[in-house]
Amino acid sequence: MPDLNPMRVEGRGEVSGGRDPDPPIHGWTLLAWQPGHPQFGDDVFLEDGTASVPEILEAMRGQSPIQVARVYCTTPAHVHQALGYAALAKGG
Amino acid sequence: MNLHDTLRTNMMGLLTTSLTSTSRMIIYTGSKPSKTAAPTGTPLGTFTLSATPGSASGGVYTFTNPANITAAASGTPGYGRIIDGTVDDGTHTQGQFTCGVGSGEFNWGSAFTSGGTVSVTSMSITEGNA
User: Which pTM does this prediction carry?
Assistant: First the structure.
């Protein structure tokens, strides 16, 4: 079977307007937000849908990010972003 | 290997058949899962593709830009899927691709913002054996 080259997908798109939480989550690639979310309400949440930022903050009492990630079946990177965002929100 | 352009065009033209007359393009956050798995991440927006989603010429399938949509959530686009039908459960994936802001196979100008207007300005798939 001869080698075939892969197909190439090229797309471009734009987004305008809309609402972001305060502070905005632009740059926080592992977080998401949807006002009135059926599970997380108006809270910012992990983009994989496993927990909200307040839930992560609450779970951190006496536990490491790795332990919390294990509890919520998410990644330590997601937990770190939730903590970073929470700190930013508190400071703001 | 190099293929005749007619063959390349015919191959790409099969996309229209595979997508059927009811197809969607859905953008999600996070890393793309296996194409046959249920989607992961947060759905940011769902585009309704045209009954004839695009056309093939010179080995390139060019999609007709779908109508603008309203973003369902705020987040960073990570991957997208093109599915036949309207239900994305992993069994209808006809194509899956990476997304990013300023990067990725599908390059978005910015992250999605809930309630924002989202538009596709171009989209094509090129057969790679010209």
Answer: 0.96
